[in-house]
Write a structure and sequence with these properties.
The chain has 224 residues and is an alpha/beta fold. It has seven helices and ten strands.
């Protein structure tokens, strides 16, 4: 589909769905950073990639498995796309994964995405992320872990936070992380004060602290 599809679909989504306001806990300061959002199913990623004020300069991290039609069916089945044990589950299990495999990858590949790998190719993810930020662009990352249908664990994945260490080595600057709570009921992006990766500390010594602060922001709780 190419990038033209993304430019076409954004105004369609914006015109057919609720408008979103943005509430900044502290004034936004331009510069390379990461916006860390909550999923809310597919609502969070869709809204962040089409309605967030900085969407045109943002690069969402997308699981590489969702970019490859051959891998999509297995990914869909393990990612709670429908309620387990529902009456229609047998039918959904043999239809939805393959429908998604035909439709989802072309759509996702039209975005200015960064592929996320879970093996040695993670270096590609990190390299592309740093390249984007060096251009002055932003990243959008969704670190929540599904815990069931329409639900996520209260803790977040943290391996990606090593990006802060790599960014400092590459740029000499600390990485700024903005937690974003996508409130789909109030139609608001609630952006908490930035959380900073401290390059003077080891990853291990700040991993849990960063995770707790970010998780709090994803829940829409003020930082103070």
């Amino acid at each position: 589909m190419g990038k033209r599809f993304y430019k076409f679909i954004v105004p369609v989504i914006r015109g057919c769905t609720h408008r979103m306001k943005t509430e900044w806990e502290t004034p936004f300061e331009e510069g390379p950073c990461v916006f860390v959002g909550n999923h809310v199913g597919a609502i969070g990623p869709v809204d962040m990639c089409t309605k967030f004020p900085l969407w045109q300069k943002s690069h969402p991290w997308i699981n590489a498995g969702m970019l490859d039609a051959k891998e999509v069916p297995a990914y869909v089945r393990q990612d709670y796309w429908w309620k387990p044990g529902s009456f229609f589950e047998p039918v959904l299990n043999v239809t939805v994964p393959y429908m998604a495999a035909a439709v989802v990858p072309p759509i996702l590949r039209s975005l200015p995405y960064i592929p996320v790998y879970h093996d040695q190719r993670i270096i590609v993810t990190m390299r592309e992320s740093i390249k984007a930020m060096k251009k002055g662009d932003y990243l959008i990352i969704f670190p929540e872990q599904p815990s069931g249908w329409l639900s996520h664990h209260t803790w977040i994945n943290t391996a990606w936070l090593r990006l802060g260490e790599l960014w400092y080595r590459s740029s000499g600057r600390a990485l700024k992380l903005y937690p974003v709570h996508v409130d789909y009921k109030r139609h608001v992006f609630k952006v908490a004060s930035p959380v900073w990766y401290d390059p003077s500390r080891t990853f291990e010594s700040q991993e849990q602290e960063l995770a707790e602060k970010l998780a709090k922001g994803l829940r829409g709780e003020a930082s103070n």
